[in-house]
Amino acid sequence: MISNSGLQAMISILFHLFFLALTWWALQSLKLDAAIRNPKSLQARILYVLLAIAISYPVAKFFLDYVIWSLMLPQIYN
Predict the structure, then answer these.
(1) Residue 71: which residues within 8 A CB-CB, separation 6 or more?
(2) Phi, psi of 28 (to 5 degrees)
(3) pLDDT tens digits, one per residue of 20-73
(4) What is the dihedral sign for C-alpha 49, 27, 51, 20?
(5) How far apart are CA 5 and CA 10, in angstroms?
(6) For residues 55 and 21, what is the distance between their CA atoms, to the nearest angstrom?
């Protein structure tokens, strides 16, 4: 397991930023113009940001948990 908490924090931040950017990129392909009155408004842009955060957080959390669990697997044989 990652023993240095500073390193773990940096990896966690990088994972979250990567998945936030990936989610933002994926959301750009959605055509939400029919659901939003003015898609170029500030409110629509804030909605895109909030959607990206809401989607990317659990995805990043899943991958971080997966990495931590895979690092803990060798402890089975100790």
Answers:
(1) 1, 2
(2) -65, -20
(3) 999 999 999 988 878 888 888 999 999 999 999 999 999 999 999 999 899 899
(4) negative
(5) 9
(6) 11
The separation between CA 28 and the C-alpha centre of its own chain, rounded to angstroms, equals 16
Backbone torsions φ then ψ of 37, nearest 5 degrees: -60, -50
* Placement of tokens 């773990």 in the chain: 8
Query: How many residues are there in the chain?
Result: 78
Structure tokens at 21: 């950017």
Domain borders along the chain are 5-77
This prediction has a pTM of: 0.81
Phi, psi values for residue 2, rounded to 5°: -75, 115
Query: Whose structure tokens read 């397991």?
Result: 1
